[in-house]
Write a structure and sequence with these properties.
The chain has 182 residues and is an alpha+beta fold. The protein has 1 helix and 10 strands. The strands form 2 sheets. The protein has a 6-stranded antiparallel beta sheet, with no helix packed on it. Strands 5-6-7-8 form a 4-stranded antiparallel beta sheet, with no helix packed on it.
Length: 182
């Protein structure tokens, strides 16, 4: 018995349905994959380049905060004033309650001291009887001008930058005093 094999057909270019201009299926799929990869690469590269080479826009906030009316402050007597200050912590905007010891020295001249002792950051208070700022924790004493009178405090009281507009006290950043106790 002889086995018959099916007839083999020769590849005749005249009978194939694909023309010379048509793209084979495999080449088309590769082109689609390359295009998708290029789009994904651009989608990742553009934000990365912007992050690395474009400086961020800083949110300009006013450095001064309205602390209150100074027309009713007595001259030469410290008053503790509270005010609200906003700041940005990462992505959160926080509003914090702050205080300052405010002394009206003359008409439209005001000094605002930070509320912490310059020794270890304890809260101090005004003693009317002795006319001094007193830190009860470590017995530091300060004059009404903020100078160290006695105790372990290494420098005078820190001061806020202040300005007055329309009888309103505007408090700016806290400036650390650099004078050493002599």
């Amino acid at each position: 018995m002889s086995e018959q094999l099916p007839p083999t057909h020769e590849c005749n270019p005249a009978k194939t349905p694909a023309t010379a201009d048509a793209m084979p299926r495999r080449s088309f799929h590769l082109a689609v994959i390359y295009i998708c990869n290029a789009i994904m690469g651009l989608a990742l590269a553009v934000p990365t380049i912007l992050y690395l080479f474009v400086p961020p826009r800083m949110r300009k906030q006013s450095a001064f905060v309205d602390a209150g009316d100074v027309s009713q402050l007595p001259v030469g007597t410290p008053v503790e004033m509270s005010f609200q200050q906003s700041r940005v912590d990462g992505w959160r905007a926080l509003t914090e309650k702050r205080t300052a010891w405010v002394v009206k020295t003359a008409e439209n001249n005001v000094v605002a001291y930070g509320p912490q002792c310059t020794h270890l950051g304890c809260a101090y208070h005004w003693e009317e009887g002795t006319k001094q700022f007193v830190c009860p924790c470590h017995a530091s004493y300060f004059s009404i001008q903020g100078a160290v009178l006695a105790g372990p405090a290494p420098r005078p009281l820190d001061r806020y930058v202040t300005k007055i507009q329309d009888n309103r006290l505007h408090i700016g950043p806290l400036k650390v005093s650099e004078e050493a106790k002599g």
